Amino acid sequence: MENRLIDSLKNTDRFWILDGAMGTQLQQMGLPCGCQPEIFNITHPEIVSKVHREYIKAGSNIIYSNTFGANRKKLKNTGYTVGQIVDAAVHNAKSAAAESDTLVALDIGPIGELLEPTGTLCFEEAYEIFYEEVSAGIKAGADLIVLETMTDLYEVKAGILAAKECCEAFGKQLPLMVSMTFEENGRTFTGCCVASMAAVIEGLGADIIGFNCSLGPVELLPLAKELRKYTSLPIFIKANAGLPDPITNQYSITPQQFANCIREYLPLGINIFGGCCGTNPKFIQALSQMLKNRTPQKPLSFPRIPCVCSPTCFVPIDCIRIVGERINPTGKKRLKQAILEQDFDYILNQGISQVEAGAAILDVNMGMPGIEESQMLPLVIKKLQSVLDTPLQIDSSNAKAIESSLRVYNGKPIINSVNGEEKSMRTILPLAKKYGACVVALTLDDKGIPLTAEERFVVAERIVHRAAEYGIPKEDIFVDCLTLTASVQQKEVLETLKAIKLVKERLGVKTLLGVSNISFGLPNRELLNHSFLLMALEAGLDLPIINPNVPSMLDAIRAFEVLYHRDENAAHYIENFSRPEEIARISAKPNTTPTTESMPESVCADSLTENVKRGLGESVRLKVKELLTVLEPEEIINTKLIPALDVVGQDFECGKIFLPQMIGAAQAAQSGFEEIKNYLCAHPKSDSPSQSLSQKGIVLATVHGDVHDIGKNIVKVILENYGFAVLDLGRDVPAEKVVAAVEENHIRLVGLSALMTTTLHSMEETISAIHRKGLDCKIMVGGAVLTEEYAMKIGADFYAKDAKASADIAKSVLN
Question: What pTM was estimated for this model as a whole?
Answer without folding.
Answer: 0.91
